[in-house]
Amino acid sequence: MGMNRRQRIVMAIIVSGSLVYIILTQALLVFGSAPGEPTQPEVRKLCSFDLKGEGSTKGSNNSAPIIYVVTPTYRRPEMVAELTRLGQTLTLVKRIHWIVAEDSLTCTAPITGLLQRLGLSYTHLASPMPEVYRKERYVPRGVSNRRAALEWVQEHGSDRGVLFFLDDDNAIDVRLFEEMRPTETVSMWPVGLIGDYTVSSPIVKDGKVVAFYDGWPAGRKFQVDMAGFAVNVGFLKKQKKVTMPYIAGHEEDGFLKSLGLSIKDIEVKADGCTKIYVWHTRTAKNPSRALKLEKHQNDNIKVLTDNMREMGMIK
Amino acid sequence: MGMNRRQRIVMAIIVSGSLVYIILTQALLVFGSAPGEPTQPEVRKLCSFDLKGEGSTKGSNNSAPIIYVVTPTYRRPEMVAELTRLGQTLTLVKRIHWIVAEDSLTCTAPITGLLQRLGLSYTHLASPMPEVYRKERYVPRGVSNRRAALEWVQEHGSDRGVLFFLDDDNAIDVRLFEEMRPTETVSMWPVGLIGDYTVSSPIVKDGKVVAFYDGWPAGRKFQVDMAGFAVNVGFLKKQKKVTMPYIAGHEEDGFLKSLGLSIKDIEVKADGCTKIYVWHTRTAKNPSRALKLEKHQNDNIKVLTDNMREMGMIK
């Protein structure tokens, strides 16, 4: 080859370096191109929908932006109770589209019944968490189904609309919906009953967000709770790579970073972030039991517990 | 005296027996005439009220019986969140009068504001638990304020109306209100997410209550949760000695027994007690903190936390 020892060494470094580069980039493509991107396929199912409420004349302003409320949920004893309570509250708000996204392969019949009964404009999705994440120490719960809802909003949402994530166990003052409705990029407000400060809020000086008051910084640029912000749908659609990472505790931060958001662009709501209109309440868990019913084959308890099983209240 | 030794002994027994009887009955009058009756004076305060909703024409039947919903509450970080969530739900129901009774000497301003804002017919009471009960191993929480509300209903309630106890952290399907509205004596239905069976329900055979399906019998005649029954106000007023005992875990049983109720007279609701329209959900507790705010005297966090303190969210 006519190369001396020194040239051969340089050549070997170049070749092996190229091989390492090729292997690494291929590995990234296979195992996820960025931290928190899905490493297993996501299965998504549209169970049912109804857009009837969207053209509704309820309220005085029937051309107001629609609020797309995204509520992830999963089968557990409290599921139907919490969705009933939250869904009834949403019927008090005009121009709402409720996206209920279940972390399961199929949709739950009592939730379908609830959605049909409430008379809201709604979409009912099923999108189970890929199995690989269920084995993690901190399970990124609610990500697969929020991602499915996000995709739905990007595809079907009105550009003038507003996206808002609201968990099924949270408590909300309905005045917050009118606060968030005029959002042009991303708006924020305080969330009560969370973390070491009992609140998570933007710190506001001279009407602008300058930092965050939050008991769990965790290296996050946006130290906010999922219920602490809303996003304009037109703004969302303009972003190139919107995502929510499968990283527990960093879902909000990862999502807001993927919007290319700058802290100075945040719109301040709730009276300069001094009022609390939403709380990160958590409902106490109940064990999922299998009941013995030998003695109750001839009374109401048999039918009652069959109904409870369908609601996910017992095994 | 002309009595022999034997007669003197009999006389002494009679006299001392009479003295013991008089002392015991007087002691009962002073310290409570029955188990669970108050042994210290109860302080009651009517803070504010509004009856505007009662003559309302909302809904088709504006002469339907009024439902008196009694919600006891006490100062804690979750109080305003839970009352906001529940109160908003109640605005979906016609012909409701909401009695919010606080376990405190005075009424809380944000609750007054909430009640005025919701537009419900309401009564806002304060009735602190007598100090003696706060030292008990099982504190009978919510009794002093429910007793105050009970007294209000006996004095001001419409005879055709219906009394219903609903705690601020419970979840309710609004269809339950129409189930309970025609109650003539006492009606009952299942309550979900409670005890070892995940439900508490009457056992119904041939349309009649024959027993109770409840994981905690505890020697109770009526094994029911507070949210599991409604009482006709006219029926309530006819009873001679209506009470609710200061005995934790026996409030419902003591109250229903004081109505002279027989199990065979219970009216069965919720499709023969096979449907769940109310859940004994419990909201996870948050610590009551005192926050340090030296660094936040010139931004929104000072005002935000002042507002939180007024709501009872922090110390």
TrEMBL record, chains A, B:
Binding site for UDP-alpha-D-glucuronate: 72-74, 103, 141, 146, 167-169, 280-282
Binding site for Mn(2+): 169
EC nos: 2.4.1.135
Pathway terms, separated by semicolons: Protein modification; protein glycosylation
A Pfam family recorded for this sequence: Glyco_transf_43
Entry keywords, A to Z: Glycoprotein, Golgi apparatus, Manganese, Membrane, Metal-binding, Signal-anchor, Transferase, Transmembrane, Transmembrane helix
Gene Ontology CC: Golgi membrane
Transmembrane feature ranges: 9-31
A biological process term (GO) from this entry: carbohydrate metabolic process
Active site per database record: 252 (proton donor/acceptor)
Keyword rRNA-binding among record annotations: no
Compartments where located: Golgi apparatus membrane
Keyword flag Manganese: yes
UniProt-listed CDD domains: GlcAT-I (cd00218)
Catalytic activity, as annotated: 3-O-(beta-D-galactosyl-(1->3)-beta-D-galactosyl-(1->4)-beta-D-xylosyl)-L-seryl-[protein] + UDP-alpha-D-glucuronate = 3-O-(beta-D-GlcA-(1->3)-beta-D-Gal-(1->3)-beta-D-Gal-(1->4)-beta-D-Xyl)-L-seryl-[protein] + UDP + H(+)
UniProt membrane topology term: Single-pass type II membrane protein
InterPro entries per the UniProt record, alphabetical: ADH_Zn_CS, Glyco_trans_43, Nucleotide-diphossugar_trans
EC class name: transferase
Alphabetized GO MF terms: galactosylgalactosylxylosylprotein 3-beta-glucuronosyltransferase activity; oxidoreductase activity; zinc ion binding
Needed co-factor(s): Mn(2+)
Family note: Belongs to the glycosyltransferase 43 family.
Protein name from the UniProt record: Galactosylgalactosylxylosylprotein 3-beta-glucuronosyltransferase
Organism of derivation: Penaeus vannamei
